[in-house]
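User: Hey, my collaborator sent me this sequence without any context and asked if I could get a structure. I don't really work with proteins. Can you help?
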Amino acid sequence: MGEAKRKKKLALNPLYQAVAEAINWVETPGGKFQVRWNDAAAVTPFGQMAFFIEFLNLTGVLDSWNEDCPLTYLSPNAPTKRDLLGTWLLSILAGHKRYAHATSIRCDGVNPGLMGMGKVVSEDALRRGIAKIEEDAGVAWLREHLERSVLPLLKAPWILDVDTTVKPLYGKQEGAVVGYNPKKPGRPSHTYHTYLVAGLRLVLDAEVLAGNEGNSNHTLPGLLDRFATGQRPYLVRGDCGFGNDPVMCGLEARDLTSVGFSHPPPPTVQIAKVGPLISGKLVPQPL
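Assistant: No problem. I've predicted the 3D structure and written it out in structure-token form, which is a compact way to encode the shape of the chain:
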């Protein structure tokens, strides 16, 4: 009985292998390629990058992101936008935090070709290219493509989480000023204002402001106005710093409800949702 099962398994093995080889074809900007797994090779964090590149290609996300980039080169010796943006994208996906780290991508002989890149640009070319993009145009370009992937999901009732994070700095970066810094008082810092979809941990936007702009008054302006009427959050959540009059009045002017809570909330505190205005008074509603 055991020998028969082994023979049947060996007979099915070629069939499974043929099906796997047929499935592991990817269509990338660089062409159509077959992906094969090597069980004896060392593990690499970029083993499944080919499938993500295929997703970017088939959805048109990569091409539209590249075409809409507000970057123009006049020199015939300058790199193409695809080479520069491709190097930037691969560096971000690799977890790099500095321009100098992008040099390591030059050792990758597979993924740049899959993305249709002619070459991987140097760290200096990457830095100069991004510096040529005007700030307002660059923010609008990135925000448009980010919202294009996110906003269709916000037609159902959802909750917006707002939070600020202080990042101490040790250099002379732009906006490095002394502000509220509980971990290292007196140290210059940046303030990250982050907006997330509750439950999904999906980041809608993140703004990097100076270290002295950590107050909640610098957080919400401009964010809620980007949402259409049917995409606005059902509830806005934040810590006790957002429970002030300017923020609450700004939300009420947009017919939104909000809740302020301490972090973490004491077990004896009852958190209530602020309902609509009735006769000029806020009606608290238990969650």
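In plain terms: Residues 265-287 have pLDDT under 50 and may be disordered. You can pass these tokens on to your collaborator as they are.
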